[in-house]
Each structure stands twice: as structure tokens, then as C-alpha cells.
Amino acid sequence: MGTTTGLRNYLVITAGYWGFTITDGAIRMLVVLYFYNLGYTPFQIAMLFLFYEFFGVVTNLVGGWIGSHIGLNLTMHIGMGMQVLALGLLTVPDSWLSIPYVMFAQALSGIAKDLNKMSAKASVKLMLPKDAGNADARLFKWVSILTGSKNSLKGAGFFLGGALLSSVGFRWALVLLAGGLFLVMVATIVMLPGKLGKAKAKPKFSQIFSKTPEINWLSAARFFLFGSRDVWFVVGLPVFLTSVLDWGHSEVGAFLALWVIGYGIVQGSAPKLLGKSHHRGPDGNTARFWVILLVLFPAGIAIALMQGLDPTLSIILGLAAFGAVFAINSAVHSYLILAYSQHDKVAMNVGFYYMANAGGRLAGTVLSGWVYQQQGLIGCLWWSTAFIVAAALFSLKLPGFRGDSAAQPQGSA
After folding, report:
1. Which of 163, 141, 150, 165 has its CA nearest to residue 120?
2. C-alpha to C-alpha distance for 108 and 103, rounded to whole angstroms
């Protein structure tokens, strides 16, 4: 694939990923706000997203194997179609919106999200010419921009969901989102090559679990990295802001949306911030440094709260610092999984890696509610610290550079 064609396909993939991500952020905000207004408790609302996270684990486990057989283009569009269906299922009358029904719709949305994410990120590796000059740095730049812009737009989706709920109501908001995503899906079907990401040698189902040490260690570190965020961010932090700091729901939503947008901006800027964009991509040493640095922030916030310092200032400053360093950690990981993967195995490896990512989010989501109820936000922060220490220990096994192409230990270039 030539550089011009690869760049064109990259832009189409990115635009499609953006369209999907906006609906993903909007539907979450719509569900949280609308069902809160219907009288659902915070715990019941959290449970609505349980299948969303659980099926993310399952989807990533088998999604890479499916993508290697039928092509990443098709798996991406299946994900878009399922999201359109999930949005449509929520337009039924209120009397239909039982907890099991909404959990089912959210399960479809979770499957859709991870099919789309796995396909988009794995495709970046395939769209970069194998013989491109400075390939490692270019791969780091492309995947950072894709991932960072996605997170910023998810924050924008939070805003859009709240705005649509206020202006046109719950059901018309869902109809508009479903219609917009359907148009994006049609456009990307027309513009992308049909066989993108289809493996030449079809892998067996038994090959789903990666046997490559670098990918296994990276996936384990990813599990604990994302668990460290969600163990206090998903339930503990919003409830603390509402119940302890007495913030309104709109203030909480706006604050979290701005945090996600800022997180995405830092993630997209990671190549420049690390100062390696003109030389080579990051390696295991980079991952170790940034995850060890991350330990300081949840521990620091916990200590500040324990010492009776201003909780509002401690949370805002601490969360900003945590988000910036976490974003760089995530960008480095997202690059390494592609760098560690051979072209013909990239879908399988990315699927396996994001299975660990989804598993960490699931564990963090469940623990966030339980730990906050038992130990409060300070307890959530200490659990977060422990998860980061675990991620750092697994990162010790990641290889450093070995020669000019050492960031690609499988010879993927």
C-alpha cells in the first residue's frame, strides 16, 4: 500500500471512528441523565453498563480472530451497524425500559464499540507502508492522533448527549444519533477497500491467546493500568463530587467531559511531548518510566484528602495531573501493541490486548462502586495506586530497544 493511499484510508478510518465515538459518548450521557430522572438509583444506573463492559472483554477476545478471517473493514462496519441497532432499541416507550432490556441494549453497544475500536486501531498498522522511512515514529504519531482525537470526541459526545436531551428529548436524540452514524457507515463502506486486515493464513481459534511474551506482558500491564483509572473514576468520583462537594449534575457532567477532552488532547500530542517523533517510537523503558510516575498522583490525592486539605482543589489539580500522565501511558501502550505485532497477526494481537483493556475496565467499574461504598473515595484512590504498582511490575518485562527496529521484536516492519 502506497503512502498516499495509506494516508487516505487512514483519514477515512479516523473520520469513521470519530463518528462512532461521538455516539458512544452521547449515549452514555443520555442513559445516565435520563434514567436518573426516571428515578433509578446510582447503583442501578451503574449496573446498566455492566454488560457494556463485560461484552467488551468477550468481543475483544474473539474480535481479532474474526477480523483476521473476514477483514477489519467488515468488522468495523458490523460494529457501526450494531450501534445503530442499540440506539434504536432505546427509543421504545418508558414502560419497556426495564433494567434487563437496557442492559441488553448496552451489551450490543459494548460489542459495537470494541469491534469498531479494534478494527480502527489494527488498521493503522496495515495502512503504514512497510518500507516507509522513519516507520516507528510515524506509527506512533498516527496511532496517537487516532486515539487522542477519539477520546476528545468522546468528551464532546458527553456534551452533545446532554444538549440533545435538553433540546429534543431522549428519543429524538437517539434517532438523530442513529441516523448520523448510519450515514457515516455508508460513506466508509464506499470509500474503504473491502479486504483490509484479512489475514492470508487463517489463524486457528486456539491461537486467540497470544503466546508472544511482549504482548502478554503488555496486556497484563494494560489490564491494571485501566483498572487503576476506573476504580475511582467511574462511580467513586462522580458520587463524591455530587454527595460530598455538592456539585450539580450538570457541573459533574461538564467537568468529566472537559477532563476526557483534555486527556485526548494530551494523548494525541504524546509524540511531541516525548520528543521522539523525529527519531523512533517509545519502548519498554518509556512505558516503565511513565507508569512509575503515575503512581504518585492517586497516592498524592489520597494523602491530601487524609490530611484535610481542600478537597475541591485536591481533586481538580490531582485529576488534571493524573489525566495527563495517564494519557501518555495509554498512548505509549497503544503504540507498543502495534509495534510488537506482525502485519498478518495485528488483528489477533490487538483484539487480545484490548480484551485485557476491557477486563481492567470491568474490574475497575465493579470495584469502584463496592470500594466507594465500603471505604469512600480515599479507599478507591489507594486501590488505584495498588493497580498502578501491579502495572509497573508487569512493565518490567517489556523489552527496550535492540537495534534500529527493536521496537518491533516480531519483525513487523
Report:
1. 150
2. 9
Compute the distance between CA of residue 293 and CA of residue 182 in angstroms, rounded to an integer.
42
Mean pLDDT over 156-177 rounds to: 86
What structural domains does the chain harbor? 3-395 (1.20.1250.20)
Q: Which one is predicted more confidently, 236 or 217?
A: 217
Share of the chain above pLDDT 70, in %: 79
Mean pLDDT of the chain: 80
Q: Residue written as cell 500522565?
A: 325
pLDDT-based confidence at residue 132 (cuts at 50, 70, 90): low
Per-residue CA distances from 113 to 116, 279, 352, 397 (Å): 5, 33, 15, 30
* Euclidean distance between CA atoms 292 and 122, whole angstroms: 27
More confident residue, 137 or 57: 57
Residue-wise pLDDT for 2-29, tens only, equals: 556 666 777 777 788 888 888 888 888 7
Q: What is the pLDDT, as a whole number, of residue 207?
A: 58
User: Is residue 306 a contact partner of residue 378, using CB atoms and an 8 Å limit?
Assistant: yes
